[in-house]
Amino acid sequence: MRGLPCTTPERKARSTLPTRVVIAEDEAIIRLDLKETLEEEGYDVVGETGRGDEAVDLVKEHQPDIAILDIKMPGLDGLSAAREIAGERRAAVLILTAFSQRDLIEQARDAGALAYLVKPFQRSELIPAVEVALGVFKEMKALHEQAASLEEQLETRKIVDRAKGQIMDAHGLSEHEAFGFIQKRAMQERQTMKAVAERVIAGQLAPEPKPSA
Ligand SMILES: [Mg+2]
């Protein structure tokens, strides 16, 4: 999925409440494996189902931090479920897709998925993907205050991601620091993050160089 951060954001401090997860996957073995892996890693699986329509209901009922959705499921496909969940900004969405359906990844992004995993995936790939989705969701919430529609937010995110990448490359900042720079300047100058990001891309704005040691 283009435009998504390629680095793993800092893990949530474990002193806070555990991250709450809803899982929707119609293959029982994969669902069980997901649940066990997540619980071993300290996540709280608050709901699980093999149906897409039930996934939407579980998210409304339990208000998790993240929903992990398979694409092909009875009841409602994962892309439609993602659209409902992401459209109302109820939770971060991570999409699971079979290798044969990887052409659906673009559609998944348009549906509001913030990360994806291609099955069969390694245990070691799951947690970074979950954390990426959670990190982007947090940024999306911040962007939402400035952009009304999901479409506008996705557009803003693309531009902010580009600016972040530029700052990271040119100034050796982490992704988190680069986002922080854009967010802070937007607040200071009472501009949207999109406007600040556009100035960064145009070369009109850059962070102060880091003092050399
Ligand atoms: Mg399936």
Give the secondary structure arrangement, pairings included.
Layout: E1 20-24, H1 28-40, E2 44-49, H2 52-62, E3 66-70, H3 78-87, E4 92-98, H4 105-110, E5 115-119, H5 123-144, H6 150-171, H7 175-188, H8 193-201
Parallel strand pairs: 1-2, 1-3, 3-4, 4-5
Helix pairs in contact: 2-3, 6-7, 6-8, 7-8
This protein binds magnesium ion (MG).
Magnesium ion (MG) binds next to loops.
What's the main sheet like?
5 strands, parallel
CATH architecture of the largest domain: 3-Layer(aba) Sandwich
Uncertain segments of ≥5 residues (pLDDT<50)? 1-14
Q: For the record, give the distance between the C-alpha atoms at the N and C termini, rounded to a whole number.
A: 37 Å
Question: How is the quaternary structure best described?
Answer: single chain
The name CATH uses for the topology of the largest domain is Rossmann fold
Helix content: 40-55%
Written description of the protein model:
The termini are far apart. The protein is elongated. It has two domains: 129 residues, Response regulator (Rossmann fold, 3-Layer(aba) Sandwich), CATH 3.40.50; 55 residues, Winged helix-like DNA-binding domain superfamily/Winged helix DNA-binding domain (Arc Repressor Mutant, subunit A, Orthogonal Bundle). A five-stranded parallel beta sheet has the order 2-1-3-4-5, sandwiched between helices. The relative contact order is 0.12. It has 213 residues and is an alpha/beta fold. It is 50% helix and 13% strand.
